[in-house]
Structures are given as structure tokens and as C-alpha cells.
């Protein structure tokens, strides 16, 4: 038997956790931007003396860069959960789509379809059956 959410967290606490705070969002965005710039800088510095270290840093950069896409910030911006301003969220969504070379219009359409009817035949985001062979796992882990 699953515990009810009210036994774990109060309505007030839940409301505070899910509330949008522009100041916090902007600070988190700045931190992410600084991290991106710093990792790119490290790549340029380390490429001169260690290809192995450069590859490790590039991998770290690549993993954290995915957050700009639809598995992170882009997804939240689409839902309007980053800033209180709808225009700011739409702009951030467009920037995230461009940064990750993604089709924002297509994702918007398919993602809202996914929320309307999850795991239905028209839900291309959440297939009920996935392949779990060796090369499939490599693809899921490294290619997204």
C-alpha cells in the first residue's frame, strides 16, 4: 500500500517546493552558464598536454550539457515552470532548443500529446517496449 503524499509532506510545504522563483531560476541559470564556459575553457587548456584528460572533461561537459535539452531545462521551460513570465519561459525554450539543435515545434506537439495519452500508440516519447541489447544500452547511455 502506497503512503499518501499528505503523510509525507504538507500541502504548504509542497506548494513552496513547486512554486516558481525568478531569482532562484536566474541564479541557477547563471551557475549553469558559468559551468559550461568553465568546462569549455578547461577543454581548450587541457588539449595542449593531455588528450585523455581533454576527453574526460569533454564527456563531463557533454553529460551536463544535456540538461539544456528536453530532459531538463528545455522541458521545464516548455511547461512554464522556470520563470513566472510566459514570454521568458518561451524565450528560454527557444534558446534551449537552438542550443541542443532540437526541433522545438515538434517536441511541443509530441510532448503535450504524450501528457494527454501516455503510453498510447500515438505517444512517441514513451514506448512501452524498449530494446535492451548491448548496442541499445550504448545508444541510450551515450547518444540520448
Entry summary:
The chain has 144 residues and is mainly α. 65% of the residues lie in helices and 0% in strands. The two termini are 34 Å apart.
Helix content: 55-70%
Uncertain runs? none
Portion in strands: under 5%
Number of strands: 0
Rg over C-alpha atoms, rounded to the nearest angstrom: 19 Å
Basic shape: globular
Biggest sheet character: none
> Would you list the SSEs in sequence order as H and E?
HHHHHHHH
Structural write-up:
By secondary structure, the chain is mainly α. 65% of the residues lie in helices and 0% in strands. The chain has helices spanning 5-8, 11-18, 22-46, 51-65, 73-78, 86-99, 104-116, 134-142. Helix 3 (22-46) packs antiparallel against helix 4 (51-65). It is globular.
Task: Give the tags.
144 residues; mainly alpha
Furnish the topology, listing elements before pairings.
Layout: H1 5-8, H2 11-18, H3 22-46, H4 51-65, H5 73-78, H6 86-99, H7 104-116, H8 134-142
Amino acid at each position: 500500500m502506497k503512503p499518501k503524499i499528505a503523510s509525507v509532506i504538507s500541502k504548504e510545504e509542497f506548494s513552496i517546493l513547486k512554486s516558481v522563483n525568478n531569482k532562484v531560476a536566474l541564479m541557477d541559470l547563471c551557475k549553469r552558464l558559468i559551468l559550461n564556459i568553465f568546462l569549455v575553457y578547461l577543454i581548450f587548456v587541457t588539449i595542449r598536454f593531455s588528450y585523455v584528460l581533454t576527453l574526460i572533461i569533454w564527456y563531463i561537459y557533454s553529460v551536463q550539457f544535456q540538461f539544456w535539452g528536453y530532459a531538463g531545462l528545455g522541458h521545464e521551460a516548455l511547461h512554464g515552470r522556470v520563470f513566472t513570465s510566459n514570454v521568458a519561459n518561451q524565450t528560454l525554450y527557444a534558446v534551449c532548443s537552438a542550443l541542443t539543435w532540437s526541433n522545438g515545434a515538434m517536441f511541443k506537439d509530441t510532448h503535450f500529446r504524450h501528457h494527454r495519452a501516455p503510453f498510447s500508440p500515438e505517444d512517441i516519447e514513451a514506448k512501452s517496449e524498449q530494446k535492451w541489447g548491448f548496442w541499445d544500452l550504448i545508444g541510450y547511455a551515450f547518444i540520448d
